[in-house]
Amino acid sequence: MDSQKSSDNMHNLSKIRNFSIIAHIDHGKSTLADRLIQITGGLEQREMKDQVLDSMELERERGITIKAQSVSLKYKSNKNEEFTLNIIDTPGHVDFAYEVNRSLAACEGSILVVDASQGVEAQTLANVYQSIANNHEILVVLNKVDLPAADPERVKAQIEDVIGLDTSDAIEISAKTGFGINDLLEKVTEKLPPPSGDVSQTTKALLVDSWYDTYLGVVVLVRVYDGSIKKGQKIKLLSNAATYQIERIGVFQPKQKMLDELGPGEIGFFTASIKQVSDMRVGDTITDAKAQDIAALDGFKPSQPVVFCGLYPQDTSDFEGLRDAIEKLSLNDASFQYEKETSAALGLGYRCGFLGLLHLEIICERIDREYNIDLVTTAPSVIYKVHTTDSNVIELHNPVDLPPQERIAKIEEPWIDASIIVPEEYLGAILKLCEERRGVQKELNFSGNRAVITYQIPLNEVVFDFYDKLKSISKGYASFDYSIANYDASDLVKMQILVNEESVDALAMIVHRSVAENRGRIIIEKLKDLIPRHLFKIPLQAAIGGKVIARETISAVRKDVTAKCYGGDVTRKRKLLEKQKKGKKKMRKYGKVEIPQEAFIAALKADY
After folding, report:
1. How many helices (H) and strands (E) does the chain have?
2. If one looks up domain 307-377 in CATH, what number appears?
3. Cα(208)–Cα(224) distance, rounded to whole angstroms?
C-alpha cells in the first residue's frame, strides 16, 4: 500500500512541495514546524511537544536549532487535493549557516519567518540572500502577530525597504496559537513551485545529510531528482565510487515511515550498512551502481572550520574518554574536525576546528554533559597564511608552530564581512567597538529607527568576545551576521607568555602588534593573582621574540631564618640571610612552577 502511494506521487510531481523554513534566531521557525505537524495530523495531540524536530537535549534547553531536520506531511487542500509537503526546519544562528545552505539546495521554495515585533535582523538578510542564490520562490510570513508589541505594517515596510521583497500578500500568523496556519498551508500549495524530475531517467539524488544511529549505522537523508531509489537497489557515490546496497528506505512523518521506493522530488532517508559518516560526503551525488557518465549535481560548499582551539581533559586520566567523546561527536557532525596534539603544560589533547564560537561552545558542552569530562580549552585562534622567505605558504592553525621571524615574509589573516542591525540609540557605541577591533566601515544605512551597518573586521578580533560585547552594549537588541571575505597581510606577531623564564605553549597567541602590549599585560596580571606563591620568586613575562613587553613578579614565600638569633652581632643575621638568598637563587634555577588549571582557564578567558 505504502509503495503504491509512493509511486503515485512519483508520477504526480505537481502534488509535491519542498520548502525550507528560514529566519533569524528565535523568530519562531521550530514552533511553526510544530504547528504544521499538528494541523496536518503528522502526530496525534498526545504525542505533541514543543520543538518536535529539535531532538537534541541541548537544542530543547537553549531553544535553538543546531541540526536541520526534515519532515514529510500529507495535506488536503480546500479544493480536496492531497499534497505531500516536505519541510526542512533550519538553524538561525550564523555558526550553523552551512546547515541552512544544504537545506536550501534540496528545496524549491522558502518560508521566510519574520517576528512581527522585532522585524528584520542580520540573519534574516543572510538567509534570504542564500534563498535567492538558490532561485527559491519566497513566501513572507509575519509571526507572533498576537504579541502586544507586534506591528505588522511597520515590519512589512521594513522587509520591502531592507530586503526588497514584495509583502503585499504576506501572511500574518501566530505559530504559538495556530492563528493563520491554514491560510499559510493553502498559500504553500498555490505559490510554491512543484519539483521537476523524470522517473524514467537514471537514478540521481543529492546527499543532504547523514548521521550515526547506534542501531542502524549511518542514516542518509536524500533528495531524489531523477529516477528512483528502491529497496535492495545497488547505488554508488560519485565522489569516491563506493557502492552500497539499500536495506531500508522511508520518510519522517515525523515518525519513521518505511517505503519501498522514493521517487523524483521526494525527500527521505535510507540505510545501507554504512559504517562511517565520513564516507557520506554531504552534497555528493548518488546514482545507480551500473550507471555510466553521470554528471554530478551541483552540491554545496563543504563547511570550512574558521576557529581552532585545543581541547584538553582537566584530569589527564580522562584522555581516553575524551578520545571516545570526540570520535562519537564527529560521527554526527561532519563540520567538526580534530587532530591529536601535545602540550607541555596541559598534556595530551586535541586541536579542533569549529565553524564559530557557538559551535565550539556546543561541542564543549556536549562533551561535558554526555561524557562527563571536564575540559580546558586553549585560546581560540583562526587560520593564518604565513608566507615564508623561500616562497612557501603555510596554513597555520596553532600559534606555537609559527616559524622564526627571520623566515617570515608576511602573515595574512582572514577578514570577514560583518553585517550588524541595531537600534539607532546604540549606534555610536557599536561603531566605537568595531573601530577598536580594527574594523573598516563599508556601509551605513537606516530603515525606520534601525541602522544597518556593514564592516570589514579581522576574524581574529571577533572570535574572542566580540559577540558578547556587541550584545551587552546594545542590551541584546543588536543582531550580527558574518561571512569570510578574504585574506589580507597585517602586522601580526606571536606573543609568548613566560613563567619563570619558560614559555607556556597553551598561552601563546598571534596578535596585532598594536594590541600586543595591552593583551600581554592583562594575561600577566591575571596569572599573578592566580599562580600560588612558591619558595622562590617567579617572574611572569609577555614577550614578542626576544623583547619583553610586560612583566610582573610573584614574590617568594619567606621563612624567617633569623628567628633563632637571640642578640649577638648583626653579621650573624646577615650571614643567614645571604645563605637563604643563595638557596633561593639555586631553587629558582631548578624549581618547577606548578600552574593550577584555573589559572589557565582564567587567563584564556581574559577580558580584552
Report:
1. 15, 31
2. 3.30.70.870
3. 10
Place of cell 504525542: 47
Q: Give the CATH fold of the 494-604 domain.
A: Alpha-Beta Plaits (3.30.70)
Which of 31-40, 56-65, 230-239, 523-532 bottoms out in mean pLDDT, i.e. has the lowest? 56-65
Residue 356 falls in which region: left (phi positive, over 0), alpha (psi -120 to 50) or beta? left
Is the domain 384-490 a CATH 3.40.190.10 member? no
Q: What's the CA gap between 49 and 60, in Å, rounded?
A: 11
Rounded Cα–Cα distance for residues 339 and 309 (Å)? 11
- Rounded to whole angstroms, the Cα distance separating 563 from 430 reads 60
Upper half-sphere CA count for residue 143 (Cβ side, 13 Å): 26
**Which grid cell is 325?**
567523546
Rounded to whole angstroms, the Cα distance separating 53 from 49 reads: 10
The answer to whether 504 touches 394, Cβ cutoff 8 Å, is no
Using an 8 Å Cβ cutoff, are 145 and 152 in contact? yes
Q: What pLDDT does residue 436 have? A: 87
**pLDDT of 271 strictly over 80:** yes
In sequence order, which residues have a C-beta less than 8 Å from that of residue 508 and are 6 or more positions away? 399, 400, 494, 495, 496, 497
Task: Record the cell numbers describing residue 28, joined without a space.
Answer: 519562531
Residue 16, SS3 per DSSP:
strand
Q: Where are the domains of the chain?
A: 2-191, 204-288, 307-377, 384-490, 494-604
Coil, helix or strand at residue 126: helix
The strand ranges marked E within 432-563 are 440-447, 450-458, 479-490, 492-499, 502-503, 509-512, 538-544, 547-554
- Mean per-residue pLDDT, 218-225: 85
Q: What is the pLDDT of residues 42-86, one digit of tens each?
A: 555 544 444 444 444 443 444 444 445 678 888 888 888 888 888
Residues 325-329: what's their mean pLDDT? Answer: 82
What would the grid cell of residue 273 be? 550498512
The CATH class of 204-288 is mainly beta
- The length of the chain in residues reads 608
If one counts every other C-beta atom within 10 angstroms of the C-beta of residue 422, the result is 23
pLDDT for 224-267, tens place per residue?
888 888 888 888 888 777 888 888 898 887 677 888 888 888 88
- What's the grid cell of residue 532? 600560588
pLDDT number for residue 456 = 92
Distance of CA 181 to the CA centre of its chain: 31
pTM above 0.70, yes or no: no
Strand partners, 540: 499, 552
